[in-house]
């Protein structure tokens, strides 16, 4: 027998943690809401109940606060629960926040699907000294209740077994008894009328749920059911009657009654330890999210993270990997081996200048990336990142965005693709689009090698370059927010941001290892696939020439390679930005395949350009050969590649989330133009103030600056109330 069990619950209540232990899979667990935005399925690993032939499929749904679809993830969850009807719902309830979590429970029990409540975070509940009477709660709510700690793994098999048992009981002929609570007389009266009037228009086993939704005038449900005009008038009269009696609007009546019901159910079987003393988390939060301390602490922590991972320890590992492991050991050894075995010169060049220089320059960053991801995973796991979203909400709100937009950006520090997907938590379409458009500005893991490369090649390895990259990314988001919010397309107030701040907890090695490994390993994998392939192609294009007939460019030959010719054409575009060489043009172009590619292209092109210098000094070589030693040009190059269109994987994520070719094109064009404008200003003003700028250049930069300031401060489009609704 195949049994499908859905894990449902509020965001951040521990669904994914439970899903991972029960199925043995490694889905991403994050200590903030909005991590799981799509449903994931897996098979239950081991259970005591049922026969071995039972196939138990678990579905990890995105966290939702209610069954009213305000956000895309709520739509995903609701569609699954209502449309595909699992055999049982395992409702995960955060025991430290039980009232709020039970709100969803009251809706789940209306679906006509057996519900088992698993009160999670029992370790914290016990530590706080709160008391929950399980039997009492079960009786009050009318469904089985179990207690678990997904993190510690206690009670989880019992929870799964209870859900399986409930599914089996419901499958029996007389097992259809589904408990639900009753609303007040007037509402129940209206609901009975609605059920009767729409009997033939809605699925039979979900009548109650549909009736309540119709009562609430849920637009999506009404659109789905397409009730006849006469029925609608009839129903509307019933709803109006109930509204008059309760003196409130229909949706609010239902909400209030749900909360009253929860309060009633909890009275007598739940006691929260007095809140006299602040909990440890609250004490920490007083400082960490304090009015004056929040932002400095955030800046300090980010600075520390980047100093450790890019500057000091991370920097040493890159140096060691590049200069010693690749520069002094692998490349010379391989070259010697190939020479001694009598390989052709072109083959030796392909292997050492193409593959090893290209792949090696990316692999050299692997330890550094692992350190960065390790530190970010710790911040995330202990619960700090959730605070950051909260802190940034206050900042972002001033710029017309909400903290909800910051969560995708936090995720994007690892990789832009999940970051862009995390925008699904945002209710308003326009804010969601804007977040999708701007999330790519944040330096992702794949862009960090480039940042590190520029820092070592031209800035003596300063960690400030990485920190500045991060803040330029955030500033780009804010400036874009301000500019875009003034246009007709995006005008309107940001959506409200409600978030439960999870309690701080000591980092769990397993979560941190998983977070680090998942992000870090994808980096290694790309080095072995996309980067390897691209390195070979670049080597080929740079070793062949059409000049004086199609031929391989041997040592001493001065004909221009295919790559040089193509790069030279594109490079013209970048002259105003200070990096108009064919190599940088090729690097920027190939960066669209994968951003790591930028380092690898420049690494191998620099080493092909000047084989006289030993490879061990590859960064210095990039600085001199490619940027002519100009720090401003290098910085401008870095910023351009940071802000321009993201890699192809992220572009297709944008396409998926925008679900429109025109919006995707608009987003990419916006990013490229913005990047171009910023880099141009950096280079032209930078050269001017360091004494060797050009007058037309500075005038152009000043014009762009003036235009940007105008776009920032002009009086924007104000939607009137009527048009704001749509
Ligand atoms: P989801 O959003 O519901 O999928 O929640 P996650 O599974 O991503 O977990 C959110 C956070 O709660 C993570 O930091 C988990 O480590 C933490 N967590 C989950 N279960 C427990 C638990 O039983 N006890 C404690 N203390 N923390 C938990
Ligand atoms: Mg999750």
Commentary on this structure:
The protein has a six-stranded mixed β-sheet with strand order 2-3-1-4-5-7, sandwiched between helices. The protein has a two-stranded antiparallel sheet with strand order 6-8. It has a two-stranded antiparallel sheet with strand order 9-10. Helices cover 62% and strands 6% of the residues. The protein folds into three domains: 2-170, P-loop containing nucleotide triphosphate hydrolases (Rossmann fold), CATH 3.40.50; 185-270, Helix Hairpins, CATH 1.10.287.1770; 295-713, no CATH class. It is built from 32 helices and ten strands. With 726 residues, the protein is mainly α. A hairpin with a 5-residue loop joins β9 and β10. The two termini are 47 Å apart. The radius of gyration is 30 Å and the shape is elongated. The longest helix has 35 residues, at 509-543. Bound molecules: guanosine-5'-diphosphate (GDP) and magnesium ion (MG). Guanosine-5'-diphosphate is lined by residues 9, 11-17, 29-31, 35-36, 63, 120-121, 123-124, 149-151, 381, 502, 505, 511.
Draw up the topology in text:
Blueprint: E1 2-9, H1 15-23, E2 40-43, E3 55-60, H2 72-84, E4 88-94, H3 98-108, E5 115-120, H4 122-128, E6 131-132, H5 134-141, E7 145-147, H6 156-171, H7 185-197, H8 207-215, H9 219-225, H10 229-246, H11 250-266, E8 270-271, H12 280-288, H13 294-311, H14 313-340, H15 345-363, H16 366-382, H17 384-398, H18 403-412, H19 416-421, H20 429-439, H21 448-458, H22 464-485, H23 509-543, E9 544-545, E10 551-552, H24 562-574, H25 582-590, H26 596-609, H27 618-626, H28 631-643, H29 648-658, H30 661-689, H31 695-713, H32 721-724
Parallel strand pairs: 1-3, 1-4, 4-5, 5-7
Antiparallel strand pairs: 2-3, 6-8, 9-10
Helix pairs in contact: 3-11, 7-8, 7-10, 13-14, 13-16, 14-15, 14-16, 15-23, 15-26, 16-23, 17-18, 18-20, 20-22, 20-30, 21-22, 21-27, 21-28, 22-28, 23-26, 24-25, 25-26, 26-27, 28-30, 29-30, 30-31
Guanosine-5'-diphosphate (GDP) binds next to helix 1 and helix 4.
């Amino acid at each position: 027998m195949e049994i499908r069990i859905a894990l449902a619950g509020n965001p951040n209540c521990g669904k994914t943690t439970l899903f991972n232990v029960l199925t043995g899979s490694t889905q991403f667990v994050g200590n903030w809401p909005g991590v799981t935005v799509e449903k994931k399925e897996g098979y239950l690993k081991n259970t005591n109940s049922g026969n071995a032939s039972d196939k138990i499929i678990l579905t990890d749904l995105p966290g939702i606060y209610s069954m009213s679809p305000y956000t895309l993830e709520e739509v995903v969850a609701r569609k699954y629960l209502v449309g595909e009807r699992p055999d049982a719902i395992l409702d995960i309830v955060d025991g430290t926040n039980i009232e709020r979590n039970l709100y969803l429970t009251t809706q789940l029990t209306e679906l006509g699907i057996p519900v088992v409540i698993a009160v999670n975070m029992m370790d914290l509940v016990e530590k706080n000294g709160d008391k929950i009477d399980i039997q009492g709660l079960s009786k009050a709510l009318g469904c089985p209740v179990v207690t678990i700690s997904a993190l510690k793994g206690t009670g989880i098999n019992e929870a799964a077994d209870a859900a399986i048992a409930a599914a089996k009981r419901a499958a029996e002929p007389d097992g259809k008894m589904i408990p639900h609570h009753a609303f007040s007389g007037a509402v129940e009266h209206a609901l009975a009328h609605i059920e009767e009037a729409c009997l033939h228009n809605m699925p039979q086993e979900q009548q109650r749920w549909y009736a309540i939704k119709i009562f609430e005038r849920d637009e999506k449900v009404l659109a789905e059911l397409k009730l006849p005009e006469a029925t609608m008038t009839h129903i509307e009269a019933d709803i109006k009657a109930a509204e008059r009696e309760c003196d409130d609007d229909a949706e609010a009546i239902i909400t209030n009654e749900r909360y009253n019901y929860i309060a009633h159910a909890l009275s007598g079987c739940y006691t929260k330890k007095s809140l006299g003393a602040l909990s440890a988390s609250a004490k920490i939060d007083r400082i960490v999210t304090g009015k004056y301390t929040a932002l400095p602490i955030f800046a300090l922590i980010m600075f520390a993270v980047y100093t450790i991972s890019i500057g000091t320890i991370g920097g040493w590992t890159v140096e060691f990997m590049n200069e010693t492991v690749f520069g002094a050991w692998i490349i010379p050894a391989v070259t010697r081996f190939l020479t001694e075995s009598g390989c052709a010169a072109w083959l030796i060049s392909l292997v050492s200048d193409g593959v090893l220089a290209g792949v090696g320059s990316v692999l050299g960053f692997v330890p550094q990336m692992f350190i960065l991801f390790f530190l970010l995973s710790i911040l995330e796991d202990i619960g700090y990142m959730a605070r950051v979203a909260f802190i940034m909400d206050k900042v972002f709100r001033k710029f017309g965005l909400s903290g909800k937009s910051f969560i995708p950006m936090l995720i994007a520090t690892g990789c832009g693709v999940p970051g862009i997907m995390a925008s699904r938590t945002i209710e308003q379409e326009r804010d969601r689009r804007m977040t999708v458009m701007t999330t790519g500005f944040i330096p992702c893991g794949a862009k960090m090698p480039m940042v590190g490369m520029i820092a070592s090649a031209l800035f003596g390895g300063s960690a400030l370059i990485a920190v500045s990259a991060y803040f330029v990314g955030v500033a780009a988001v804010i400036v874009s927010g301000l500019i875009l919010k003034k246009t007709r397309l995006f005008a309107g107030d940001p959506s409200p941001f409600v978030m439960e701040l999870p309690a701080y907890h000591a980092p769990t090695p397993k979560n941190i290892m998983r977070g680090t490994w998942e992000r870090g390993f994808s980096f290694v994998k790309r080095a072995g696939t996309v980067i390897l392939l691209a390195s070979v192609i670049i080597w080929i294009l740079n070793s062949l020439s059409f000049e004086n007939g199609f031929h391989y460019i041997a040592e001493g030959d001065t004909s221009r390679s295919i790559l040089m010719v193509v790069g030279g054409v594109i490079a013209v575009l970048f002259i105003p930005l200070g990096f108009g060489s064919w190599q940088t043009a090729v690097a920027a172009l190939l960066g669209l395949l994968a951003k790591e590619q930028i380092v690898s292209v420049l690494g191998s092109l620099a080493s092909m350009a000047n084989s006289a210098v030993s490879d061990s000094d590859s960064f210095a070589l990039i600085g001199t050969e490619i940027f002519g030693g100009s720090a401003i040009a290098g910085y401008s190059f870095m910023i351009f590649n940071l802000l321009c269109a993201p890699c192809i994987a992220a572009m297709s994520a944008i396409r998926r989330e925008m679900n429109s070719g025109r919006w995707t094109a608009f987003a990419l064009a916006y990013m490229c133009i913005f990047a171009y404008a910023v880099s141009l200003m950096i280079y032209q003003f930078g050269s001017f103030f360091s004494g060797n700028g050009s007058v037309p250049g500075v005038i152009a930069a000043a014009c762009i600056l003036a235009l940007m300031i105008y776009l920032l401060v002009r009086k924007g489009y104000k939607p009137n109330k009527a048009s704001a609704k749509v």
